[in-house]
Amino acid sequence: MLELTVQDFGPIKSGTITLRPLTLLIGPNNVGKSYLALLAYALTGTFTRPGIDVPELPRLLWRIGRRVPGITWPEDLEASLTELAKRTPHVRYEDFDDRTRDTLKKAIDRFVHSAASALSRELKRCFASEISELPRRTDGGTFRLSLHQAQPPVDLRLSVAGRDIEVSLTGWDLSGQEFDFREPRGLPSEAAAAVYGSALGRLFPFLFSSAYYFPAARSGILQAHRLLASALVAQASLVGIERIEVPKLSGVVADFIGNLLRLERRRRPPPAVAAVAEFVECEVCKGRVDLRPGEGAFEYPEIYYRYHDYEFPLHRTSSMVSELAPIILFLKYVVNKHDFLVIEEPEAHLHPDNQRILARAMVRLIRQGVRVLITTHSDYFLEQVSNFVRLARRPEVRNERGYGEDEYLSAQDVGVYLLRFEDDGGSVVHELSVTEEEGIPAEEFVRIAEELYDETAALDRVTAER
């Protein structure tokens, strides 16, 4: 699990979150939940997105038989690794000689140095802002971010350095880690490549994983994406002749639209993940959401909703269907085990009953190895997740309520963070204690319910007195 510490970033004064299988961010509007969600997305899957150019990125280069520029493994060292690979497919870090470990250390340090440009680019792109605009104080202020991974241990620090960020690797340890000489696949003779690629994959798995962001107001984006793409295509003939006005989009919205346009060409996910999409379709949408390949030179898929024998284009469906449609489609076409999903306000436009069902779908998704971060204002959604935590030790209740054997969450699976404004400005992140006895503390929503109850009681008293 990855621990992210933030100081003076956007509206957030300070706070630490751990990205668990399910991470929940709650709190008032404009307190910084989306800032944290965007930051988690920008730092996850950074090197898997189009346009990222990191010279030391190993797997893509070595798989086409090229050596990583700037990383020189002495020929005799490479030869000794090749001989070692012939004797055994696996070797522990401690079994490498000092020279191999020293060469690997230099390669990792060089990778971190080059990664600064990629991380700077992603922060700018995802927030659609210059780095100088991201600190809490823009009058020369700065922010500090740190990333900590427990196993294998690694610590990274990010800070403002002019118009970009500076990345420093303050500590790492590969002790006890086993390296597989069969990676990268298809190049068994590249023993040095296997060692380097394995090291990066273990130290920085979050940078190489796949991440998908579902922004708020996604139904509007979903319905407008074809219009936006068509408008850009219509202006293509004027490139180089006239000035082309391109709307400014945040990186997450651009990624969201781009993935939508490529959906029907994506590899199908595992059946168990797709089954979660079918569960949401059946239990919430009461119909199917699917794609019809586009026609013509620019093939944009048509998204439609099928209810019994009737088909409806997305703009003629309920807001509930259009809000859930992108989540359903990504689960059908894109999402795989170990992927990271960020979903803003999944409860939007959903009846409380359907919010509970969606919480159940998230549990099923997490049990398939997908990691999810959610921002929410829904006490129904939060309470249902809390019940799934409490069900961990109560299999008899799971059976009575009609849940499957694995429809529960351990307390370690869930991280809940409340963001609150401080009197002196800015917000602070508070971690809520999650236990299998009590579930998730509900004080934030209970406080509001009590205030509303007190107000209603006062009105009832006045009415009775009259």
Any overview of this molecule?
This protein is an alpha/beta fold and 466 residues long. Helices cover 41% and strands 20% of the residues. It has helices spanning 33-42, 58-63, 75-87, 98-127, 191-203, 205-208, 218-234, 251-261, 271-285, 319-333, 352-367, 379-390, 395-400, 443-465; strands spanning 2-9, 12-19, 22-26, 90-92, 144-149, 154-161, 164-172, 178-180, 211-214, 288-292, 302-307, 310-313, 340-344, 371-375, 414-421, 427-432. Strands 7-6-5-1-2-16-15-3-14-13-9 form an 11-stranded mixed β-sheet, sandwiched between helices. A 3-stranded antiparallel β-sheet has the order 10-11-12. Helix 9 (271-285) runs antiparallel to helix 11 (352-367).
Work out the radius of gyration.
Answer: 25 Å
Q: Average pLDDT value?
A: 82
Share of β-strand residues: 15-25%
Rough shape?
A: globular
Q: Count the helices. How many?
A: 14
Per DSSP E runs of 2 or more residues, the count of β-strands stands at: 16
Distance between the termini: 60 Å
Q: Enumerate the spans where pLDDT stays under 50 for 5 or more consecutive residues.
A: 52-70, 185-189, 233-239
Largest sheet composition: 11 strands, mixed
In short:
The protein has 14 helices and 16 strands. By secondary structure, the chain is of the alpha/beta class.
